Amino acid sequence: MKKIIFFLGIISLFFAKNLQAQEIVKSFLKNQETTSKNELIYITFDDRISLVNDNINRMIGFDALDKETKSELQKKYTKIIDKVNQEEILNIYNKSFVKELRRYGFTIYRQEYLVSKITGRFNTVNVSQIELEEFTVIDSLTGKYYTDSTVYYKTLTGLRMNVWLEYNFSDTTSRKLLFISHEITDEFTGFTEDVEGKKYADFELSLLNPNDAYLLADQTARMTARYMYNFLMNKYVKERTKGTHKYFYSIGEDKKIKYSLYNTDYFEELPIEE
């Protein structure tokens, strides 16, 4: 009997703490709608972008090759990143990131603004590095019917944008190194079938082109803003529950809040090298 009472007590405490955390989340949402209470972010951009070809990086012995051979291989295995405007990629990402943060209710101060003029508590975010990576991946098609065992493989081209952000780096107690990655590939759909002993692959293939790199920059920027909202919302909850809450809260693109035991839609936190 005592064990049952103890167990019920644990459950009651768990739900009480969850309800408390949900009320705190509602408070954060309400604050974001009020300019006098919302979160302030002072944001800076290092405006650095690196172009990386994973296909070249994985070539064993590439560094030992002569200059002419390297150039030929880079030309052969690079389809997109050598054709994009790096400045335009940065411009799209920076503008979309700031625009989306404002859509989520944040007050944004850009690096042109004197930080000494900001009153009250605020967050600092520095987009320290952006990387545009080209890679290949093998995808497959299977049978149209479960009786078809034929599998068709095809190598697809992909683009991945990696972003590193420094949060509150001047404060040793709260600073974080955050990372986000988003990727797209050639669109490959279809099926295989076996007709009278002959095997066929019926598919549609839509190849990536340089314009997709600009779309990727916009998508990644908007995702970064959403992840920043989730990061600051959960930080807000943690501070007010003293870390006793069990759920991770996140906002969807539709601005609806969901909670889970797993931190989906969230930055990867990287170790900071001293």
Helix and strand topology:
Blueprint: H1 2-32, E1 40-45, E2 49-53, H2 54-57, H3 67-77, H4 86-103, E3 107-109, E4 123-141, E5 152-167, E6 176-185, E7 187-195, E8 198-206, H5 210-241, E9 248-251, E10 257-260, E11 268-270
Helix pairs in contact: 1-5, 4-5
Write up what this structure looks like.
The protein has 274 residues and is an alpha/beta fold. It has one domain. The protein is built from five helices and eleven strands, in the order H-E-E-H-H-H-E-E-E-E-E-E-H-E-E-E. The strands form three sheets. Strands 1, 2, 3, 4, 5, 6 and 11 form a seven-stranded mixed sheet that branches. A two-stranded antiparallel ribbon has the order 7-8. Strand 9 and strand 10 (257-260) form a beta hairpin. Helix 4 runs parallel beside helix 5. The radius of gyration is 24 Å and the shape is globular. The model is unreliable at 2-16 (pLDDT under 50).
